[in-house]
Amino acid sequence: MGVVGVSLMLPDQELAEHPPPSYLASSMGAEVLEKGSPHKLEQPVPISKMMDEVKRLENEQRLERARKAVEKKRKGEEKRKKEEEEKRKAEQAKLAEVQRRLEEKKKMREGAMNRKSSEKVAQENSSVTMEATAYTNGVESTGKQPGDKAYGITASGKHTQEGLTVACPRSFGIGTWVNIEGIGDRRCDDTGKDIVEGRIDVYMRNLSEAQEFGRKAVKVTILNKEG
């Protein structure tokens, strides 16, 4: 009589070699699968879904690269414009400085010429052409108003007088008499910061007359008389 073999298998091993029918597997549910059943398999991800994900990531990377390129270009453009603006301002400042120096040289030359002309009048008692203007006692000419302490007072300390008072360059000297072509004899009782060499300013009482007088080139002669 032969010996009947008896299979001694552990429950999990037996279940692995002889899986239960599908109708039992469904009834066993999560209880069997949670115990480490080898039949617990993850569902594979479809190839199409994987490809879609790859494309999505590639698109995101492409968009990010494009965004960075645009940002880099924008910053480069801003930097270029800023450098151009700074260069333009520097050139303008340089040009303004050159113009200022040229203007200073021009004024110095004109001042030297006018000073020479005035000195010629004083030293040689000859006539010279000067620029004649007119002024009043008012604020538009002197910055003073009626009631001010020095209103109507000249540099000589005398009151202004129409037909007598004239403002001359300092080189003429206060009290010097001059003859102004077309105007007559006047006395240098006044001066001022705007009365530079080569310019003479005739006092007039009426503002409209002074404005109408404007600027004129006149011949001026220093006279040898006092009073």
What does this structure look like?
InterPro entries: 3D_YorM, Resuscitation_pf_RpfB. It comes from Terribacillus aidingensis. This protein has 227 residues and is of the alpha/beta class. The chain folds into 2 domains: 75 residues; 97 residues, Beta Barrel (Barwin-like endoglucanases). Helix content is 48%, strand content 15%. The chain has 5 helices and 6 strands, in the order H-H-H-E-H-E-E-E-E-H-E. The protein has a 6-stranded mixed barrel. It is rod-shaped, with a radius of gyration of 54 Å. The termini are far apart. The N terminus is likely disordered.
Give a short overview.
With 227 residues, the chain is α/β, with parallel strands linked by helices.
